[in-house]
Amino acid sequence: MELVDRYMQAVEYYLPKGKKGDISRELRANIMDEIEAKQNDKAKDLDITEVSALLKRQGHPQKVAQAYSPLSPLVASEDMPLYKSAMIKALIFLFCYAILTAGNYLFEEQSVNAFAYLFVALGSFLDNIGLVLIVVTTSFYFAGKNGYLNKWRYPKWSPESLPKANAQIISKSDSVSEIATSVFALMMFSTPIWMDPISYEKLILGFAPDMQAWRIILSVLVSYSLISAVYRINKRYWTRTSLAVYVAEYLVYIATMLYLWTQPALVVVHNPQASDLNRIIEGLFTYGWLFGVFIFTLITVSLIRKWFKL
């Protein structure tokens, strides 16, 4: 029958080559048996409308093929937690790579433009996110299909090793943003090292001559923040010790900003003719330190609340 032949051809289209013959013969036999049974009941051949209705009851050709030969999913449901964890780590690694790319861009362009830094970092991240998605998903597909994920699916554990019921989750986004901010800050503080003298002299803003020692002090503080942020990326929960150290880090920044608020201007305008701009910059930094203290105090209070809940 033509309709049966057309239906079987549609089903075979969705079947793997190695299974087409056996499945096709079995399915065709089942359909012909059903048609023959219907014809015996009616004592006459089925017309086109009746055959079409019988084939519709079989289901869509793709659905029938899937029932006979289920396709392997790209990522099995039991592997989704591991897949999600791997994808998050891959994206974090990609973002860190984008931050380094942006830092290298500033070095090549001899610039400290914050907008260019963010634009290059975001552009590098978006350019490569598709590749990361394909690589991770493809790796999981072949590893899961060949049974390699079984030993990684569920890591070793014991009830005693599980986090406490009141455990506080470490925010990955906070750690990533701290990494980006710290890298840019280090680029800013180390301009005399990586920037050529001509480009350095063209900078509008710079450290005041009598405040040059703060380059080293602030670089040390920011370097510690960068290292601790990288360390926290691989951690899922806060401990009382790690959170206490994080609170101490914020207290050091608050104390530093309060001290700088009482000192002469940290940043000045290089151009001696721009005295009006210099006064504006001094005013911005005067109130900027206090604003920073206010923001950091709010964050510290929230962290202390988390600490008491542990």
UniProtKB/TrEMBL annotation:
Keywords: Membrane, Transmembrane, Transmembrane helix. Coiled coil: none annotated. The chain crosses the membrane at residues 90-107, 119-143, 176-194, 214-231, 243-262, 284-304. It comes from the Bacteria. This is Integral membrane protein. It comes from Glaciecola petra. The lineage of its organism: Bacteria, Pseudomonadati, Pseudomonadota, Gammaproteobacteria, Alteromonadales.
